[in-house]
Design brief:
By secondary structure, the protein is α+β, with helices and mostly antiparallel strands. Helix content is 42%, strand content 13%. One of its GO terms (molecular function) is acyltransferase activity. This is Acyltransferase family protein.
Length: 95
């Protein structure tokens, strides 16, 4: 599962007018920690970008003081991307 730090949520709450979640899918995988950067994929790499609905950070700012709002936004984003990654895994060939 993804790991999120509250600092990004805190910055978004202070300065972002809107948050746009983007999920990037790469087939075949490349440039991961498990493989050397110079290893070339056997087939052409395909990038797929899925842009989610905008998230209004002010909806979270109204939930409490900045630390509370930051935690709630962070939790929301964590849940969002966990679900996105799970749906990608279910739709992958062989699943």
């Amino acid at each position: 599962p993804p790991v999120f730090h509250r600092g990004a949520a805190a910055i978004a709450l202070r300065g972002a007018s809107m948050i746009t979640p983007v999920t990037i899918k790469v087939q075949p995988t490349t440039l991961t920690k498990a493989e050397p950067w110079y290893r070339i994929a056997q087939r052409r790499v395909h990038f797929s970008l899925r842009v989610g609905a905008d998230i209004d950070p002010t909806a979270f700012s109204s939930l409490g003081p900045p630390p509370v709002a930051s935690r709630k936004l962070n939790d929301y984003l964590h849940d969002y991307f966990t679900k996105e990654l799970a749906s990608d895994e279910r739709s992958a060939p062989g699943h």
